[in-house]
Amino acid sequence: MLRWIYWFDDTIVRRFLAKGSRVLAVIAGVNVICLMVIVLIDVGTRHFSLDPPWGSGGLEISELLMSMLSTMAVAWCWYLGGHTRISIVLERASARGRAILNVLTSFFTLIWLVGVTLSMMQITANNIKFPLTTDTLKINIWPFQVIFVIVMSHFGLVVVRSLIEYVRLALGHKAKQWAIMEEGGE
Known about the structure:
Layout (H helix, E strand, L loop, with lengths): L1 H46 L10 H22 L7 H6 L2 H35 L12 H29 L16
């Protein structure tokens, strides 16, 4: 039974959460590059009194790319443990105390994620029925909202996995190394 649980954990974590989070981070990197190019072209054409290929919709494109950038990078950041922490408190706590604080952080993050994701699902359902578009370029917003819901659901699974590991640590169990940043790589 325990062997099956470890296989399931390794399969889900290694093949789905780690690689999925990494792919999302790469897409976020591509978004940054696209965002930089769009802003560069937008500012450059304005400087030379030219019109960019997208007219006056550069701000709208930038906003949509920025919304995707922040949501896609967050799962990878959490997976690596790169999220913001109050280290002054964590440094003074025992290993078990750190685990308990991490359990609380993960738990409240998960509650927040569920609320945000469910709310966005309702908003997206309404926007699919009654399409909402950007002002200038008339880009439908609902596809970006669907991507947001999918990405936040993935992030929720990453948080659930870390919550499980932090609960194990808080209960005094030895942690199984599941982060990809281990010695010797994957």
